[in-house]
Amino acid sequence: MHKEKPPLEKTDAELVALALANQEDFLYIIERYKDRLFNYIRRITNVGPEDAEDILQDIFLKIYLNLNDFDQDLKFSSWVYAIARNQVISNHRKLQARAEGHQVAIDDEAAHSIASDIDLIDDMDAGLLKENISRVLERLPDKYSEVLVLKFLEEKNYQEISDIIRRPIGTVGSLLNKARELFKKEYAKQGR
Amino acid sequence: MIENDKFGQELLAKIKEDQVAPKAKWKFRLKNYLLWSVGAAALVMAGVAVSLVLYMIRSNDWDVYGRMGRGPMEVLFVAVPFFWILCLGIFTLIAYFDIKRTKKGYRYPALWIVVAAAVSSSLLGIIFYFSGVGERIDNSLSRQAPFYDQIINPNIRFWSNPEEGRLSGVVISRSDDQVYLLIDMARQEWTVFTDGMRTEGAVLVEIGKPARFLGKVTDEHEFKAEEILPMRMGKGFFERMGPMPMMTTKLKMHGPDNIMKCQGRADGLSGLFSKYPELKEAFVSDLLERKEMIGKMAEKDPDIYNEIVNLGIPPQVIEELQK
Q1: Pick from B7, B22, B106: which is nearest to A20 by CB?
Q2: Residue-wise pLDDT tens digits, A136-158
Q3: CB contact, 8 Å: B6 with chain A?
Q4: Predicted ipTM?
């Protein structure tokens, strides 16, 4: 007898079908994505945790509202991140400098990944490396910092980044190259 | 990290309280369908614009401009169909922005979309051109569109300059074998002498139809024609001044004098017919050719036959029209 998979082992597409059939099952999608999206919001905005939660709520409401628009040709995570990005841009993204004391949250693995990709000297203390990288990311123009965040912190590939920011793959490549170049320059300035 | 369970439960409670429900799939399909329809329509319109650009460029008198000693800048402003090129640009842009807004449109670089739109509209335009779509649209617009001579086809005005040797208008009468009477764009009557005139191919001078002449003004309202050119683009514009369109551009006729006033004419049709019997003949011939159209107009307004009688048209013609 075929044993049904537990909800958390189901694919995203299966969870979408469940949520469309039963409102309560939307909870599984929330559980799967809430932490990732929360971190993403905090990485691309200057808002505190409470505001980030409010934005996250708006994002999930939008996801639920548009669930029938999900196209299975796309990865569900890319679709969800795209909605999150649009919601942040339309409601809460600020152009001014980040609030003092708030920095982009980076883990050790992400810091080393950025350092090796951009040929930074990373034999310094891990904490200092993360702090330096975070400060540089904050100083970059949004269109460059967001692709670096998606690539190294959210670990998205080129296709996924293309689907999230809704630009051609070639443009994603150009943005990342330019982002790397600017990052190196800013990082070097910081070192002086 | 978010506190487990609480966030999800609160969100679900809000969804229930606000009665939030997923939008129906048909709405997204409709939106997608509309986007693609607008894109396709824009491409078709761009194709139509291409067909008109091709038609106007092919119909132009490039060799004549050269013989007239016109400089390249003047030829550029007169001969290049800027209006349709602008339309082509606008519709291509609409297609581009529309495609970009589709679900997967963002995946294609801007240049690819613009090139694809340009190539598709060019191919469509070539098909439309060879199918005669460009010519038919130009004829229709030239007959009815306001500002046709000012914006869509300024070439018309170029050819309405008797002082510079270019005369065009509607031929309304022939006084003998070689002398014609023509009404130009400014509603001026011209006597055109065509003896010794060169013709380009088999160009006929027909009563009630537009014609173009190269030559020179010999006296007030007298023009010595050296060459007759075929009427190509914009011929419908001159047909506005011809007898048939005077009658049929309005579905309801109020009598010949009122038609003239409605259309800003100085003379009544019946007056013209008394003065120029050949024009009346051409009008009768036109009426009989458009018997079916007259019949449909008469279904909406049976008085139309009385109005035709008032123009001095013989009863046997009316009988023929009513069959």
Answers
A1: B22
A2: 888 899 899 999 999 999 999 99
A3: no
A4: 0.83
